[in-house]
Design brief:
The complex is a heterodimer. By secondary structure, chain A is an alpha/beta fold. In chain A, helix 4 packs across helix 5 and helix 5 packs parallel to helix 6. By secondary structure, chain B is an alpha+beta fold. Chain B has 2 domains: about 160 residues, no CATH class; about 160 residues, no CATH class. Chain B is about 45% helix and about 15% strand. Chain B contains 10 helices and 14 strands. In chain B, the strands form 3 sheets. In chain B, strands 11-6-3-13-1-14 form a 6-stranded mixed sheet. In chain B, strands 4, 5, 7, 8, 9 and 10 form a 6-stranded mixed sheet that branches. In chain B, a hairpin with a 2-residue loop joins strand 4 and strand 5. In chain B, helix 2 packs antiparallel against helix 6, helix 2 packs across helix 9 and helix 9 packs antiparallel against helix 10. Chain B is elongated, with a radius of gyration of 30 Å. The chains are: A alpha/beta, B alpha+beta. At the A-B interface, helix 2, strand 6 and helix 3 of A face helix 1 and helix 8 of B.
Amino acid sequence: MAAIVEGIGLTKRFGTGDATVVAVDAVDIRIEESELVMLMGDSGCGKTTLISLLGCILTPDDGELRIDGEPIDPVNQDLSVVRHEKIGFVFQLFHLLPYLTALENVMVAMDIARTKTDEAESRATELLTQVGLIDRLHHRPAQLSGGEKQRVSFARALANRPKIIFADEPTANLDSRQSDNLMNLIQELRREYQTTIAIVTHHEGLKENADRVIQMKDGRIVPA
Amino acid sequence: MKTLFLKDMRYRQTRVVLTALSITVLISLILLLGGIMNGMRIQARQYVESTGADIWISAEGSGGAFIGFSMVVEEYMAFLNSARGLTPNSASPLVFAQARPTVRGKSTKAIVVGYKLGQLGGPKQVIAGEGKMFTPSNFEDYRPEDPVPYEVVVDEKMGLEIGEQITLGNEKVKVVGKAESRMFVLDTPLLFMDVRIAQKLLLGNTPHVNMMIAKTDKNEQPGQVSAGLDALETIEARTLKQTLGDIIAYYVDEPMKAVQFLRVMLWLVAGTLIGMITYVTMLEKTQEIGVLKAIGGSNNYVMGLILKQVVLISAVGVILGLILSYVFAAAAPIFVAIHFVESIIVACISFVVCCGSGYLAARKAITVDPMIAFRGEI
């Protein structure tokens, strides 16, 4: 199988001098195409920093990163292009724009990628239908439940047909029923769109949905 | 999604409306202050130009026409009436003094113009059927004992009736005629009377005037005539152009320096206001901006969204300010002259100041770390 994301010796430090914290310490990681990976570990172990590195939000201090087989050059490359072309993000607190409807929140990701409005609207409607929100297209985030917001968030992440979706604690603000529904939806979307998904979670109960669990401790990957 | 920025603005409509309104008020104030100054300049010019005089003469060291006092000396008058380059016998004494007459029991402001009937310095036009001119004094030279009735021709806009009396320098002065309105600076009406009455009522019955005015011969250049007279040690002579410059400097530009300063300050306030509000909005939207960047929004994309808002708010504020300034000008209790071209220039400068300031604040937005999307709530 081809690697969608491959990090070699990825290192990220914060602070200087004695106050330096090594959040990610020489991590080698490989995520295969269509894989559903769970990234687990205690708070502060470096999970979010690692997906930020893999998602081209942070630039590593050391190490190499390849996405979809292409090396990423944080100095000479516009990472925003990599982010909207190849990566989708789902955030713990959903982060939908409050002044946009569900439909527009999905469309905004395609607006960034300069997709034509008609095409964006059609795809956003299709995605929101897929996540079960056909009757909520024109509702604003304030009018949606937590589970619905997270579904919109997944639809937004899928909008530009990314190679990989990074989801940071997507079930942390959902009750167990909503959480189960979301995981079912993730499995469904993965089958439908063949998208690779990496989920950061504390939730041990989600392990069973993963193809592989990556355990982190003190900035390093340890055996699960 | 070309309307993304509009949706954001609608979501924050109270702030947007208040910002635009603040700019509107500031721009209209900037234009209104400019209009007041323009109005003052126009009013300062119109009496001077209406006299038809080419040369304005005052005593050396008096400070100039309209400012200081000069003695009317018989020898000077005789000299001026036969001076080379001046139309013979065109020289005429003129009192131009600020006064506070009591009109219908209320103290008001006015400019008393004392001149010799039939000579330069009188009203441009006396309204037909509205009284007559005042009774002139009998002698060409200064004679304090010469009895002259206290009569005045008033500006038509003062609303006085023929035969009414006003009080000036503790004396009752009878309104005998009305002149076509030609207000001086800040809508100050002109009261035309015989030069002797003006001297009696305002100058303690002394032989002082503010200036002598005269016409040049048809074939003479006022500049050359003025220079020739000015070369004499005892008098200062100015052309119409120089006199206009003096009067505008004395009555408008110098007193209005603070207003000019205020106009610049208002520009700064308008710029600071939009910069500050854009900056505060940026701080409030940090999380949103972080999310937009995290999902692939480039710096230009984020900057574009913010600048579109800044440009729209500034444009609306400036255009409304432009319109409002004309409304204010029409309703103002004094003469306000907003020049269209000037107002367009002011509007453009204001627009640039607001957009520039908004741009500086918006630069904050592109420094937002997309990592922020992993923390906190929008």
